[in-house]
Design brief:
Layout: E1 2-5, H1 10-24, E2 32-38, E3 41-47, H2 52-72, H3 80-89, E4 94-95, H4 98-113, H5 123-128, H6 143-151, E5 159-162, E6 165-168, H7 181-195, E7 201-205, E8 208-212, E9 224-228, E10 242-246, E11 251-256, E12 261-264, E13 267-270, E14 284-291, H8 297-303, H9 305-310, H10 315-322, E15 327-331, E16 336-338, H11 340-343, E17 346-348, E18 355-357
Parallel strand pairs: 16-18
Antiparallel strand pairs: 1-12, 2-3, 3-7, 4-6, 5-6, 7-8, 8-11, 9-10, 10-17, 11-14, 12-13, 14-15, 15-16
Helix pairs in contact: 2-7, 7-8
Amino acid sequence: MQRVRYPHVGLNTLLAATLLMLLAACSAPEPTRQEAYVFGTRIEVRLAGPEGANGREAVAAVLREFDRMHRTYHAWQESELSALNAAIAADKPHEVSTELAVFINTAQELSAAGDYLFDPGIGRLIALWGFQTDDIQPHVPPPDELKALIAQHPSIANLKLNKYRVSSSNRAVALDFGGYLKGVALDRAAAILKSRGVQHALINIGGNILALGNRDGQVDGKAWRVGIQHPRAAKVGNVPLASLELRDGEAIGTSGDYHRFFEVDGKRYCHLIDPRSGMPHDATQSLTILIPPAADAGTRSDALSKPIFIAGERWLAMARQLGVDAVLKVGADGTAQATPVMKERLTIEAPDVRLEVAKPFIAP
């Protein structure tokens, strides 16, 4: 039996419901809220405080920027990124914009830090598994095609950047920023809002969330409280796995096997692919990290959750390597583990969850 799941937006709906429930309990007026669908997922921006027309225009500027980034760096539709990928496949150097050059350089640094378990250079693998589409179909690649592509070892490390001129030593490389661009967009949104005087906001892009200020819009107001989706939400009545208070400048990122996936003969194949084997990772259901305030907190929340997710049993060692000390992991068997720092921040919401405390960064 074959089943397919389309791009998942349940996390955002659930988050919105959780926030509404929690915000209704306080005396502050409900924040201004606007939603859109960008980057293949539902996004939400909430403003707290008396922002008025200025706040609405700030949110509109954020949404315009999201749309621009989505169109400019789309992996399988005509875009600046797809033009670069075509040049790489043709073994031709290619001039890119200043922005794309910065993105490539940053992605190379983040990929190297995580031993290339997060690698935007495996776009051909993602396409081979059928995830570069808005209409995912159950499709297990022919073993010979998968083996041939893996043998070429495509990686973003194969790209050489000379100012704005990009060349590659490997024609099998194709960039896909799907595991990176949402985090970059969070940081971009925060910068736009701040530049327009918005001090209190919550930005959510498909489960990657960044907080500014607080939910009351006051100097000493209450922190934003957000929900973390249960990776098997339907089985628990769509109750959140956990919730936590997100402080000014903090960001969380969740990677899960429930966002984009299909099933064949009862086996789940998700879009999070291990670059070493070319196979979708199946030892983790979900993994959430909390990143402290920084100019790149959003970027790190998105990019760094991937190598920790794919590291499997070595997730603690990988988290330590990446300098991430707040992690919540749900394994393939549904066991939930958290580092001590993360446990202190969590409130478990789902009745079936028994949270185990992971030993502090001791490699298995």
